[in-house]
Specification:
This protein has 139 residues and is mostly beta strands. It has one helix and eight strands; from the N terminus they run H-E-E-E-E-E-E-E-E. Strands 1-2-3-4-5-6-7-8 form an eight-stranded antiparallel barrel. Residues 8-19 and 123-139 have low confidence and may be disordered. The chain is globular. Helix content is 14%, strand content 53%.
């Protein structure tokens, strides 16, 4: 009987971890504070287990990202060209539903605020459901 309770406890723990895992896969609207002002970007994440890949879409061009998701901890890096030099940006954020907040490190030389919210599809309301479409009535 004792073995049964141990197996049940392990199964419940595993289920709780799976049920509480959140996926970041999809498009996100990000905002990064920099010494030069706020910089918006669109991020497309692809999550495979704890592995995170994707693309940061910026005015200056798209760049690849790589990182990880462990529980609610999201970490990723990408490299940009800054005045002819490669600059690694490292983001560490905490995921909470459809938003995440954290910090961005600029090559280990400076740090500032970073945040993102899950993008909603055009034509959808804030809850991700399609708005009703009016159709003309024929009388």
């Amino acid at each position: 009987m004792k073995v049964f309770y141990v197996i049940l406890a392990v199964a419940l723990l595993a289920f709780t971890r799976v049920a509480s895992a959140q996926s970041v896969t999809g498009e996100w609207d990000a905002l990064m504070s920099t010494p030069g002002g706020a910089r918006p970007s669109k991020i497309v994440f692809k999550q495979d287990g704890e592995k995170l890949t994707g693309t940061v879409k910026r005015e200056a061009g798209d760049v690849a990202l790589q990182g990880s998701v462990k529980g609610t901890a999201v970490q990723f890096t990408y490299t940009v060209d800054y005045n002819g030099n490669a600059l690694v940006l490292s983001i560490a954020a905490t995921l909470s539903g459809n938003s995440m907040k954290g910090t961005v490190s600029f090559g280990g030389q400076a740090e500032d605020e970073w945040s993102a919210t899950r993008a909603t599809a055009k034509g959808n309301d804030a809850h991700g459901t399609s708005a009703p479409v009016a159709t003309p009535s024929h009388q």
